[in-house]
Every structure is written in C-alpha cells, then in structure tokens.
C-alpha cells in the first residue's frame, strides 16, 4: 500500500514537471540563439585578451622605466661620488700648491735679507753678468768725482732758489683765494731725488708737494685699499677721498650706506644734512653727483689759482712763469731773459689722517705707470718717509758711506742707456727702492766708502733677480721692519706687500724691452763709465789697490 501510493505520487510529479505551461516562451528559442551567444562570448573573450595584452605591455613599460630610473640614479650617484673625490683632490692640490708658493716667496724674500758675506752674494749672480767687465774701484772713484760729485753744489743753489719762489707764490695764492669757499693751501715740502741728494741727470727738477684742505665746516675722510674693504688688484696702492661735514658721522649711521625707502626717515640725520645740492659738491672739487674728491677738478682749480697768484706777483721778478706739461697740474717752468730755464713740480696733495703719507693728484708718468682707475682714485706717496729713512740710516753708517754714490752711479748708467736705446719700464723710483731694501738688509759696515764696487754689484744683482721674478716689493707697504722712530702708520705695515713690477706680468712687450735694456746696460757699463773718466796712471791704480788690501 505505501509503495503504491509512492508510485502514484511519482507519476503525478513527473506529469506536472513536464507540462509545457511551466516553461517560459523564450526558453523554447534557446537552441535558436546559441550561435549568437557563442559569437558574443568569443568577442568578449577577444576583448579581454586584448585588454590583458595592453595591461601586460604597460606593466612591462613601467618596469623598463623603473629600471632606467634606477640606472640613472646609480649613474648620478656614481658621478656625485667621483665629483666629490675630484673636488677633494682639487682642493688638496690647491692647498699644496699655495703652501709651496708661500714657502717659495718666503725663501726668495729671505735671500736678499741675508746678511752673509760676499761669497753668498756672488752665488746669486745670473747669466746676465757672465763676461761683463766691471770697472774697478779706482775707475769708479774717478768717475764719481768727475761726473757726479760736482753737481751737488748746483742742486743746493737750485733748491734754495725754487723753495724761496714757491713760498712767495703760495702766499700770493692764499691771498687771491676765498677763505670761506676755496681750498686752504699749506706750506710746501721738498721730496724726491733733489732733496735726497742723489739726482745726477740734467735738467734738475725740484719736486714740491703742497697739502690742501677743504674750507670749514668740511673735512676729508680717506679710504685706502688696505683699510678692510676689497679692492681689485689694479687698484692696490690707491685710495679715495670723501668730502664730508666735520660734524657728520659717516661710520656711526647706516643711512649713508643703505638706500632707505621713501616712507623712511633717519632719526639722526635730517634730509637737509644727507642730501646736498650737486653744485655745492662740485664747488668742493668733487666728482659729479658724488662726495668724492676729483683729481681732474683739483688740477683745474690749482692751475687757475697758480695763474692768478703769478699775475699778482709777476712784477717783482725778471723772468716768466709757465706750465710746462698740460697733463700735470703743477709742472712749472721759470724762463729767464738770458734763455736759461728752471723746471720744478708743485703738486697738490691730501694728507692721510695724521701721518706724512699723502694722496697725490697726479703721479709722474713713466713707461710702466698705468692710468688711474678713475679721477676719484688717488695714488699714495710715501716720499716724506723715504727721505726720513735715508736720513735716519745715514746717521748710523760710516763716514762718507757709499749708499748714495751707488744709487747715483746706477741712475746715471740707466739714464745714459735709455738715451741710447729708448725708454724702458724701469724708473729712478725702482732703483731707489732697490737701495732702500739693501740698506735695511746689510749691516752698516758694509757701506764703507771703499766697498763702493761690491755694493754697486749687489744692487745690480738684486735688480736682476727682481726682473727675473717680476717682483719688486714696495719698501714700506707690508714691511714690518720699518724703524719705529719714523712713526710710520701701522696699517700699511700690516698690509699685503705691493709688487711694483706687477705691470710687467700684464705687459710682456714692456718687460722684454726693460730686460733687454738692463742687459745692454751691463754690457756697456765699462764703456759708459770710461767715457766720463779721466786717465788714471797705472802706478796710482796700483797704489789704490794696495791701500784697499
């Protein structure tokens, strides 16, 4: 019975399931659309495959780019390491080079400071002295007595005459100037070879410097290349002069150094004090629209003032006065009715602080002198200290010492050679600098009169060495051994040494000409001296040699 009931139920369920009304109509069409569905599935599969390929390609490109970036980073890192290593070696090489250069300079500077004997001096002789027949003591003594010694009296008379006339001219200049508006002129001072008694070549020219100062309430404030601010190499040895009011503190306020805004006002200085009319500063001989003293303006003012002064006193003298050089403010020439003439330089200068160092408006030109960087740059002259140093050292030397004689003979030889072969880069100031260095380096007994020949050779050797190295340092600048008795400003002693031969490095043509002239002078030394030497008997020469032994 249960089995029968189960079978009946199974038949009923089967009939119900297989009844057509139980299936949707579209199911009937499934077999008809199967191909379309398969085609769509294939297209979809193809689309997915293409998308997969695209994604795989992008992933590959990203991986390649990542590898490229990693390689570039490695290259940059390696280059940085190499650059660091290169910079380290470069810096180390520069330090080693600078140390070697400093040692070399110190060693070379110590050579001429050595106070050894004459054998050490002979060791520094160069090729220029090979085969040169140098005059002996007797010939040099005769030459000095005949050609040079006789000019001393002429120089003394000329100095006396020029100084007296210059004092009278400056007194007249003060009388024609407006004391309230014009520059105040002080007394003149004699400097240079005429006042150091070593001038040998004619015409004799006296060099006088005339300090001047601005009218009240103004004053000069100077600045040099060694005052702390950086100056380019071509401006070393120069300085600038600023015209300020005496009550103006240019160092205590920044309003003169910093450009203030339109809405800002300095509480220490009013607008009237900080800004001056351009015409007022030009009346004070300043460069246009600045407070810096202009050398060209000073030249024009001084020439006009000297002309007015001469017109006032010309009736007192029986000669004419004129300017001999247009580019020098005080190059004057006295012309007598007899046709003779006397030349002298009356040059305006500005005192540096409270010392005897002066800013000079126009320095005598030479083949080696370079033009001023601008008309507001002034050259510094130490001529007063040079004269004092020679006077101080002369008191400690033996009687009739030969230092001045050596300089006179060397100046004569060089001047004579230049008259034959043309000018060179050497000047009498370079020759005097050589003598000053040797005066400080050698003991006083080495300058006895009987050692004239040896000391003259020392000067020639020292000059040859300086020409070879293109280095001749200024005697005072950077020299820490200047005698304290001179009262020389410490700022210049602590400054870097100033190479007077620096232009030789920049102008090879002038250097070559100078070296050739020097060598030619050495070869012609005996001929030039014998030309002005009287005949010396042989017996007299032998006697002199015996006395010297």
Automatic annotation (TrEMBL):
Predominant location category: membrane
Topology of the protein relative to the lipid bilayer: Single-pass type I membrane protein
CDD domains linked: UDM1_RNF168_RNF169-like
Listed Pfam families: Mab-21_C
Coiled-coil ranges from the UniProt annotation: 38-82
Keyword Nuclease: no
Signal sequence, renumbered to the chain: 1-15
GO molecular function: protein kinase inhibitor activity
Job of this protein: Enhances Ca(2+)-mediated inhibition of inositol 1,4,5-triphosphate receptor (ITPR) Ca(2+) release.
Any GO CC annotation of this UniProt entry: nuclear outer membrane
Segments forming domain Mab-21-like HhH/H2TH-like: 404-477
Name the UniProt record assigns to this protein: Inositol 1,4,5-trisphosphate receptor-interacting protein
Subcellular localization(s) per the UniProt record: Cell membrane; Nucleus outer membrane
Family per similarity comment: Belongs to the ITPRIP family.
UniProt cross-references to InterPro entries, sorted A to Z: ITPRIP-like, Mab-21_HhH/H2TH-like, MAB21L/cGLR
The encoding gene: Itprip_0
Organism for this UniProt entry: Sagittarius serpentarius
Record's keyword terms, sorted: Cell membrane, Coiled coil, Glycoprotein, Membrane, Nucleus, Signal, Transmembrane, Transmembrane helix
């Amino acid at each position: 019975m249960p089995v029968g009931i189960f079978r009946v139920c199974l038949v009923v369920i089967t009939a119900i399931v297989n009844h057509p009304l139980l299936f949707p109509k579209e199911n009937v069409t499934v077999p008809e659309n199967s191909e379309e569905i398969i085609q769509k599935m294939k297209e979809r599969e193809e689309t997915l495959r293409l998308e997969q390929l695209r994604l795989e390609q992008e992933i590959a490109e990203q991986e390649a780019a990542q590898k490229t970036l990693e390689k570039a980073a490695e290259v940059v890192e390696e280059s940085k390491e190499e650059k660091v290593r290169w910079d380290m070696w470069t810096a180390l090489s520069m330090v080693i080079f600078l140390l070697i250069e400093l040692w070399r300079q110190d060693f070379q500077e110590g050579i001429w400071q050595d106070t050894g004997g004459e054998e050490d001096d002979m060791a520094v002789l160069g090729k220029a002295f090979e085969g040169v027949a140098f005059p002996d003591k007797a010939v040099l003594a005769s030459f000095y007595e005949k050609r040079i010694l006789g000019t001393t009296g002429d120089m003394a008379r000329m100095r006396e005459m020029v100084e007296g006339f210059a004092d009278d001219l400056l007194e007249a200049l003060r009388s024609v100037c407006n004391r309230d508006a014009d520059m105040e002129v002080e007394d003149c001072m004699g400097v240079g070879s005429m006042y150091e008694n070593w001038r040998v070549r004619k015409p004799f020219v006296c060099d006088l410097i005339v300090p001047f100062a601005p009218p009240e309430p103004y004053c000069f404030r100077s600045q040099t290349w060694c005052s702390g601010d950086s100056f380019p190499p071509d401006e070393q040895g120069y300085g600038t002069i600023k015209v300020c009011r005496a009550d103006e503190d240019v160092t205590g306020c920044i309003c003169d150094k910093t450009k203030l805004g339109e809405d800002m006002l300095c509480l220490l200085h009013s607008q009237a004090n900080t800004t001056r009319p351009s015409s007022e500063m030009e009346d004070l001989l300043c460069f246009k629209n600045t407070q810096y003293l202009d050398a060209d303006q000073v030249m024009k003012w001084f020439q006009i003032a000297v002309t007015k002064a001469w017109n006032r006193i010309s009736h007192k003298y029986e000669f004419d006065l004129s300017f001999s050089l247009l580019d020098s403010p005080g190059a004057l020439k006295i012309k007598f009715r007899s046709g003779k003439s006397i030349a002298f330089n009356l040059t305006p200068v500005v005192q540096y602080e409270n010392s005897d160092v002066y800013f000079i408006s126009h320095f005598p030109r030479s083949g080696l002198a370079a033009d001023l960087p601008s008309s507001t740059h002034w050259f510094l002259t130490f001529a007063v200290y040079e004269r004092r140093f020679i006077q101080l050292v002369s008191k400690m030397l033996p009687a009739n010492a030969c230092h001045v004689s050596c300089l006179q003979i060397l100046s004569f030889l060089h001047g004579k050679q230049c008259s034959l072969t043309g000018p060179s880069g050497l000047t009498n100031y370079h020759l005097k600098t050589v003598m000053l260095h040797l005066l400080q380096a050698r003991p006083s007994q080495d300058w006895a009169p009987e050692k004239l020949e040896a000391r003259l050779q020392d000067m020639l050797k020292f000059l040859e060495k300086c020409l070879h190295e293109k280095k001749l340092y200024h005697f005072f600048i950077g020299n820490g051994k200047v005698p304290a008795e001179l009262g020389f400003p410490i700022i210049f002693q602590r400054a870097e040494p100033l190479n007077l031969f620096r232009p030789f490095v920049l102008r090879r043509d002038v250097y070559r000409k100078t070296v050739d002239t020097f060598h030619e002078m050495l070869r012609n030394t005996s001929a030039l001296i014998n030309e002005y030497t009287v005949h010396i008997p042989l017996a007299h020469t032998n006697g002199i040699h015996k006395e010297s032994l």
